[in-house]
Amino acid sequence: MKLDDDIRAFLDAPRGADLATINPDGSPQLSVIWYARRGDEVVVNTTAQRVKARNMDRDARVALLVGDPKRYVRLDGDARVVATGAEALADIRAHAVRYDGEESAARLTRAVWSTQDRVTYSIAVRRVYRYGFEES
Amino acid sequence: MKLDDDIRAFLDAPRGADLATINPDGSPQLSVIWYARRGDEVVVNTTAQRVKARNMDRDARVALLVGDPKRYVRLDGDARVVATGAEALADIRAHAVRYDGEESAARLTRAVWSTQDRVTYSIAVRRVYRYGFEES
Questions:
Q1: B20–A20 CB contact, under 8 Å
Q2: Which one, of B43, B49, B32, lies nearest residue B88 by Cα?
Q3: Measured between CB atoms, does A21 come within 8 Å of chain B?
Q4: Cα torsion A113, A53, A76, B11: sign
């Protein structure tokens, strides 16, 4: 679906976000995660071995809550792999620049991420719930 | 399970929290919620009609993420109803005092909550994941 302009602008600030996925036993899994908007979708990046990655590979349905208790957006959607290898490494580096700056991104890319099996997922949004926005 | 002292102290500050429950179709549901620690459990309060309440009544498994991206605690557990009626109304009022102060709590209790069918759930914790804490 198409995201409204104010939702796009809200997502474009590097905000705290929690991602919910579904465990193999059907219970909920929650993680703190960085994200970035890409058109009308939102991308997240993790390692292929993490529980949330394996969960999304098995059941694409996710929920992402972005913001803080006073003002937030919840996106319900479906996640699919859009990058692996060098491209996914570039994605996590770009997320780190966005959230923590160039120096931290360079350091973590070198020390941690370059040896990992990174994966980028893009979330196609099915539903948007907003809270704390001005009425328009 | 028994919560460590530093986890108890962390939960005792009124922090932002996201609650994940499971929808009837097996997809994840995410909500921003107030909570309070009660012994080794954590209580949350909502209305009986809300999706998250109906979800917890059907499938007790929840995940609660408390804090911010720099320092947070994730609790995986099972939710059960521990109060309804006047007792549950007193609980949401106490949460509001904790988060927003006495004046806001009194106003919202009068204007909103007193006409609702409130329910308090207590979450028995199965697992704790912590991030950003000092090594002890």
A1: yes
A2: B43
A3: yes
A4: negative
Nearest residue of B to residue A60, measured between CA atoms: B27
Q: Is residue A136 part of a domain?
A: no
Residue B92 is assigned to a structural domain of this protein: no
**What pTM was estimated for this model as a whole?**
0.94
Q: Is residue B47 part of a domain?
A: yes
Q: Hey, of A27, A66, A75, which one would you mutate to test binding to chain B, going by the most B CBs within 10 A of its CB?
A: A27
Cα-Cα-Cα-Cα torsion A98, A101, A106, A112, nearest 10 degrees, comes to -70
The CATH number of the domain holding residue A117 is: 2.30.110.10
HSE of B135 in the Cβ direction (CA atoms, 13 Å)? 0
* Partner A contacted by B68 (CB < 8 A): yes
Option in B20, B27, B64 nearest A61 (CB):
B27
Tens-digit pLDDT string for chain B (136 aa): 999 999 999 999 999 999 999 999 999 999 999 999 999 999 999 999 999 999 999 999 999 999 988 899 999 999 999 999 999 999 999 999 999 999 999 999 999 999 999 999 999 999 999 999 976 5
Q: Does B21 touch chain A (CB under 8 A)?
A: yes
Pull the structure tokens for residue B109.
């209790």
Distance CA B15, CA A36 (A): 25
- Domain contains B87: no
What total of structural domains would you count in chain B?
Answer: 1
Domain of residue B125: give its range: 5-82+120-131
**Would the CB atoms of B29 and A64 count as touching at under 8 Å?**
no
